[in-house]
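Page 42, continued from yesterday. The earlier attempt failed because a stray header line got pasted into the input along with the sequence. Redoing it now with the clean sequence only.
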Amino acid sequence: MLLGEHDHSLDDKNRLTLPAKFRDVLGDGVVVSRGMDGCLYAHAADEWERLADRIRALDPLSKESRMMQRYFFSGGVRADLDKQGRMVLPVGLLEKAGISREVTVAGVYDHIEIWDRAKWREHLHEVEGSAEDVAERLAN
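This time it went through. Structure tokens are written below.
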């Protein structure tokens, strides 16, 4: 399980060093893709396959299904971790997500989210302000 948030900086080659406890869960092969809400997702290979199976199962005759398939699959890249636990994040994905050098890496159960640090703080502020209301709606 991936938990917690960690502030990191990308180096000049757009490499992100993952926290050791995340590396243990993710293993050597990671798939990085566009995420939701303005971040990138990184999944262990087996977790990516589970998500891919769900996306693949969507009806290809549905416009919304095709949009989701394009969104996730066209932006997905395999990223290998080096001995220091670093992975290269593609410039195109970083630009699309608006991610600069200062990032926050958040563990979200079965994947990690990579956020521009300032955007993460804004998002977290929004979430903290509405979490009780959302929990109440989901409980009903």
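Notes: The longest strand covers residues 102-108.
Reminder to self: strip header lines before submitting.
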